[in-house]
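Hello Y.,

Per our agreement to keep a running log of every chain we model this quarter, I'm adding this entry. I've kept the format consistent with earlier entries: sequence first, then predicted structure.
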Amino acid sequence: MILTGNEIKKSVCSGKIVISPFSEEQLTSNSYDLRLGDILLKYKSKVLDPKKKSKYEYINIPSSGYTLNKGDFVLGSTKEKIGSNYFVPIIHAKSGIARMGLFVHITADLIDIGSIGNSTLQFFATLPVKIFPDMLIAQVSFWVPKGKITLYKGKYQHSEGPKSSLTYLDYHGKKH
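Predicted structure for the entry above:
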């Protein structure tokens, strides 16, 4: 069962859903619109090896916008910290953004119950496209789970800003 916009608002007010900052203007009929943060992460390594920590740089998105060229791949994040210990958040890209040639893939669109933080977004430009801080980039819906809830305690908990892959930790016996 999916929560309606009104139920999302009630659950934010009661503390069952975290959306921070929260604005009623971003509520829709059954989701909440998410904004783009102001930092991008760009990998510097020629080859990404899942067994090694990747090199990357941060790029501040100016208020005048940042142009992604055809073939560019970067990571961004939601401005809002989101999560819930009671519902399953699912994130999707805004369709209007995809219609401009920007593929927005959510690194894990099914967010674990108990995971709270900024969500990392993958951007792949099929055409040159300009992005701006605070632009509406994705949407989150909340689903009612069935069964016993085990809260997330993984390596991406409390993420801030775009988060690079931490897969290398899996190969070194570290889970957090």
